[in-house]
Amino acid sequence: MTVVDAESRFHVLAVDDSIIDRKLIEMLLKTSSYQVTTVDSGSKALEVLGLREEGDDSSPSSSSSPDHQEVGVNLIITDYCMPGMTGYDLLRRVKGSSSLKDIPVVIMSSENVPARISRCLEDGAEEFFLKPVKLADMKKLKSHLVRRKQPQLQPQEKPLPLPQQKPEAVIQQQKPEQPPQEPAEEAAPEVVAVSDCSKKRKAAAIEPEVLSSPVTTNPRLSSSGLAVET
Asked: Who contacts 13 (Cβ-Cβ below 8 Å, separation ≥6)?
């Protein structure tokens, strides 16, 4: 949705007894893409708003109340000096109504009277424009309309804190799992192979020793036991 589409949803009620000023404010509002309804008196403005001119503020008129509820008014801009009901009187009636008190009200006047301006602002007016109204003044209305239109945001629930892990558990999680190591096979005892050549050499070295050693023979006694043979 574009900005123009959003602003075209806002409905402004313009109140002024001067036809010239009323046409001017209507042109400026339509140029700013607002929906506009114009009336020439405060009493007719109350009819559009669904309020009686005299009596209880909260009692709506039977003819205009259903239409008002369907169309709706998002902002009221009214002249201060008007015959019968002034713009200040209209401001008081709107702010005194429980159903309309939240509608922003803007006052216009060709007279720059500080006491009048202060009284209107203190009693609930959002702005006080000096005539002739300019296009730049219409841009100031947007902030009041958007602020009233925005729904109140609900506070977001804070997320629950995560349970803190012990340092040991964190360290264990950070360490990568290592595959189990297979037990090392026991080293087989080295077998020294003895070749046939080495066996023969050892045998050859033993034979001379046997041959060179003197052979002692035990003396044999003859049957007579007298002669000893050697």
From this structure: 37, 38, 39, 45, 48, 49, 73, 75, 76, 77
Whole-number pLDDT of residue 9: 78
Q: In this predicted model, what pLDDT tens digit does every residue of 125-174 receive, in sequence order?
A: 999 999 999 999 998 998 888 776 554 444 555 556 666 655 555 555 55
Helix 87-95 to helix 42-49 angle, to the nearest 10 degrees?
20
| CB within 8 Å of 48: residues ≥ 6 apart | 13, 37, 39, 64, 68, 73
The torsion angles phi and psi of 30, rounded to 5 degrees, stand at -70, -35
Task: Please classify residue 31 by burial: count the beta carbons closer than 10 Å to its beta carbon, then call 0-12 exposed, 13-18 middle and 19+ buried.
Answer: exposed
Asked if residue 91 lies in contact with residue 101, where contact means CB atoms within 8 angstroms, the answer is: no
Whether residue 117 contacts residue 90, with contact meaning beta carbons closer than 8 Å, is answered with no
